[in-house]
Design a protein that fits this description.
alpha/beta, Rossmann fold, seven-stranded parallel β-sheet, 16 helices
Length: 393
């Protein structure tokens, strides 16, 4: 068998970001002995639990640099080229905009002349005035996509359409949509995890925990979620609101963060009804502590955490961005910023057994459609461009 060698270029493996977790799940499923994979991360892997640590456990070679910005990237270019040349990859697989741009610039300097694959994992939700470097990278990649031998993989149909609108080549021959997968063994109902986390948060059995997860950035729509919870406080009978607690986890989601502090000051619901947890490691355990899930995002590509919450068996509400409507597949619980309070009120008004039935239906949908095996087969079909699928573990 021809052992096609693939090198994955990523920015950072120190956390559990959506793109990095997708790479990890793919590497766990694909047969690396038949088609060897290696990974090159531009930033050093920090100590502690991380995607990088999990990839290393798989036996996949991981090469690291210590790039911290543009200046250090320029200094590290000889080392970067040396590592890539040493791997002699047949495929250079670049995850997200900056690695895609770097890989494209470096390919002429590589004797192996690798096939180039870009992984676009978001919508181009950025203005030049907000993030000029990312805006320029997007436009440069859009221009290059018409002239270079490149294949692009996105995790949502919404992403393909949005990138077509800013000039990317999105023909069937150059662009493939592969939805993300969920590990339904890891993300599954777990009564002991639920009891443990709820005890930690001091949530008794009468509390209905409304959960959200995501870093504190404008795209995640936290102002809309705070406003919706404020509306519930203003409109629901006090006895009903007393049972509600809002639980949010994610990077910079802390009471002392300036933007979160401003939201707390703007809204007047009792502050003992909101739990701002910052970044958390055991996300499946935390989701199990919720009674319903809300995704208030203003921009998404594929909504990983929505699918994960559905896999845990939660009823869910999501905004109509990216592929949220497709994943949730229930228009009753698709919201805008204005309708979010009404959607939450309608879900809360259902008897507990009906909310449980919704959650079970959500889990079944994830189990049937968004599997690791389907995702890995789809990646293999693009990577190896052959009707024969490599043997599995």
């Amino acid at each position: 068998m021809n052992k096609t060698k693939t090198l994955h270029l990523v920015i950072d493996l120190s956390d559990f970001g959506g793109a990095e977790v997708t790479l990890l799940r793919y590497l766990r499923e694909t047969q690396t002995a038949a088609h060897p994979h290696s990974v090159l991360t531009l930033k050093a892997i920090k100590p502690g639990p991380s995607v990088g640590a999990e990839i290393i456990k798989l036996g996949v070679p991981v090469h690291t640099l210590n790039i911290t910005g543009l200046k250090s990237l320029l200094k590290a270019l000889p080392s970067l080229i040396k590592i890539i040349r040493s791997q002699q990859p047949d495929i250079l697989s670049a995850w997200l905009y900056y690695p895609s741009l770097i890989a494209t610039v470096l390919r002429p300097f590589l004797s192996s002349n690798p096939r180039l694959i870009w992984h676009i994992r978001s919508l181009p939700f950025v203005r030049f005035s907000d993030k000029p470097a990312r805006w320029l990278a997007q436009r440069a990649l859009a221009w290059v996509s018409h002239f270079q031998r490149i294949h692009i993989i996105s995790n949502s149909e919404a992403s393909r359409k949005a990138h077509a609108a800013i000039g990317f080549k999105t023909s069937k021959e150059t662009w493939t949509f592969i939805p993300n997968a969920v590990d339904t063994n890891q993300y599954a109902p777990n009564a002991s995890a639920r009891a443990k986390i709820r005890a930690e948060l001091q949530l008794n059995d009468t509390v209905i925990a409304i959960g959200a997860i995501g870093r504190n950035v404008p795209e995640k729509g936290y102002p809309d979620l705070f406003a919706a919870f404020e509306t519930l406080y203003q409109t629901l009978p006090s006895a009903q609101f007393e049972k509600l607690h809002l639980v949010i986890a994610g990077r910079d989601v802390t009471p002392d963060n300036p933007t979160i502090k401003a939201l707390l000051q703007k809204n007047h619901f009792p502050k003992n009804h909101i739990h701002l947890l910052g970044p958390r490691q055991a996300i499946p355990d935390l989701i199990n502590a919720f009674d319903l899930f809300v995704m208030p995002s203003r921009s998404e590509s594929f909504p990983n955490v929505l699918a994960e919450a559905m896999a845990v068996g939660l009823p869910a509400i999501a905004t109509d961005v990216g592929d949220c409507r497709i994943v949730l597949n229930d228009d009753r619980f698709i919201a805008t910023a204005d309708t979010m309070p009404a959607r939450m009120t309608a879900l809360l008004a259902l008897p507990p057994h009906e909310r449980e039935a919704l959650g079970l239906a959500n889990r079944k949908r994830i189990e049937e459609i968004y599997t690791k095996e389907k995702m890995a087969h789809a990646f293999d079909a693009v990577f190896y461009a052959s009707p024969a699928i490599p043997n599995r573990k």
